[in-house]
User: Fold this.
Amino acid sequence: MRQHPIRTVVAVLGFLLAARAEAAGKYLNDLLLKDVGDGRQFELLNDYAYQDSKDTVWTVPKGEKVNGASIPSYLWSIAGGPWEGLYRNASVIHDYFFRTKQYDSDSVHWVFYDAMLTSGVNPTKAKIMYFAVLRFNPRWKAITLSKKPCPTSPPGHAQYRCEPVLADDVGERVVYLLETPKFDQKELDDTAALIQKQDPSLDQIERLAKARRETAKK
Assistant:
């Protein structure tokens, strides 16, 4: 039976609108870059801001240098080099926040996925890349350390014994515990095939990546 042409147009429009609704983020200005290396190192000529689908604004400051290093080479077989194709703009956001660690690693990987959709990356390919960075990219956890000077002993008591603390070390500082999972090409290939076949939700991809990470630690 031939499908009515009007119904076909409506169905296609519905699909496009649904895809657009999923990618509700927006880039707030143009990406202006200057090559300062061999085609891999670039300097931003302006502040570059992305407003994600949750309305958080991620800004990469003017003068920052980005090189796509946060997009590991094992993903190049899926989408090409970090400056090729539609995901270049998303990689600039990911690169800067991956390096500066202003947010937790899961949030930085998520905004990469969100920005890819906004850039028009195929949703299935974006999900595969999202799983890959969640599963195999380094992860970090912020730990706050506090150092205080040796306390003064009360009158008539022996001096407290404590480790000497340099004046510059007094106060709080944040350190990051970094975890770098081992890459497994077969696991990535198998998961990519699963995503292409079953089109799991984002929550399912996140749970799968977490479960695989925990299993790999054992």
User: Anything to note?
Assistant: The longest helix spans residues 5-22. The CA atoms of residues 198 and 204 lie 11 Å apart. Residues 5-137 form one domain. Residues 1-21 have pLDDT under 50 and may be disordered.
